[in-house]
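Usage

Read records sequentially. Each one opens with the input sequence:
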Amino acid sequence: MKNKIQLITYVDRLGCKNISELNSLFQNELKGLFGGLHILPFYYPIDGEDAGFDPINHQLIDPRLGNWDNLNELSQEVDIMADLIVNHVSAKSIQFQDYLQKGKDSEFASLFLTYDTIFPNGATEADLLSIYRPRPSLPFTRFDLNDGSSKLIWTTFTSNQIDIDVKSEIGIQYLEGILDVFQKGGVKMIRLDAAGYAIKQKGTSCFMIDETYEFISQLTEKAKAKGIEVLVEIHSYYKTQIEIAKRVGYVYDFALPVLVLDTLFNKNALNLKKWLEVSPRNAITVLDTHDGIGIVDVAGEGDKPGLINNAILSKIVDQMHINSKGNSLKATGAAASNLDLYQVNCTYFDALGRDENAYLMARAIQFFVPGIPQVYYVGLFAGENDMELLTKSNVGRDINRHYYTKNEVDAHLNRPLINDLKELMFLRNNHNAFNGDFELVKTPENVLNIKWTNNKDVAELFIDLTAMKMETIFS
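and closes with the structure output:
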């Protein structure tokens, strides 16, 4: 993977109607800004209940966006990352509809994970309470079959997202078939979506158990054999993340977004510095994504302390809500459907109270810490919360999933703040120091000083948090 900034975007939310127009954007307005492109689900359909993360057909590009030839053309311009949705398919998929019609006689019956697959003799209260949940309800939905019977099906996320039995022969073939299509379509890297939930076993949390690591390792080897690198998406306690990083190609630094807010809100870089001393170096760094701002990644777990004291963390969350003028509250938790227990739904710019100076500092920190930076398309424009889209959909994460018009894209790319950001991005992409050695210079808590050195090439970031002044030095 190139040591250059990557963009995270949907095909149709950057003033583009299809992949060909996105290609044109990369060859013109965005040229030189990114070395990689993570295209969020572009499979059929892109407008399901979870914005493409509930594919009816994972091997088919939604015809409204184009086809695999178009993606191959784009891959000649920039390295493509695509989501491999390993945990589930849409309830509207041909496979699941066939199962509802034919039951155990369906050729796809073993593709889907039923309650009795894991609990053939039933589950105890302790079994059910031990299951790690990203949502407040139990991970099962009752479906009626054509013969009049009913089945409890695993639905970890929503009732439209039917969990796959990835250990079954047909489940293995299903995922390998997607990898084959990706390889032919020019995909250079995959993001394993919700991989931590893929393996279920009685008597466990059904989340990142030993068998999950083995599953991820096997899938990673299959991808690598096809020339595809693997990024694993896991939100979890930070020490778990460190252990995961030892076993996989790349992990997200999901702790960074809140640690940067902590640094800027409290004018104290101590927590961030402690993290940078132990954080995985095989990381993809983010401040924002298509999901919310993760809290669990810095929080304590049981009696184990997190990266940020829980009382301080609560104040940071409160400050985000204050800075967004309460709009993030309308998109988070019980206020909106598609509940997230561990995230605050808000654009990063609004989380910082639309403070342009603080926003540029946040991006500078992201670009200087170890890892490959990813910038979300809304973050590229320092975007604001889309309350109109949130009201229309009542899906909390839509607050940060704005549909930009071509005119909006052009206008944002000419803003002084975005011009400053683009200049910083060009330097991060092209300065040779970032291919060298990282140093966290010892400074007081109110000062952050990061230095990269590669022979005679030096890149240095210095931030005085008390004065909220930043200096970048490139030589």
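Summary fields computed downstream for this record:
- The chain has two domains: 6-86+169-435, 94-163.
- The chain has a mean pLDDT of 95.
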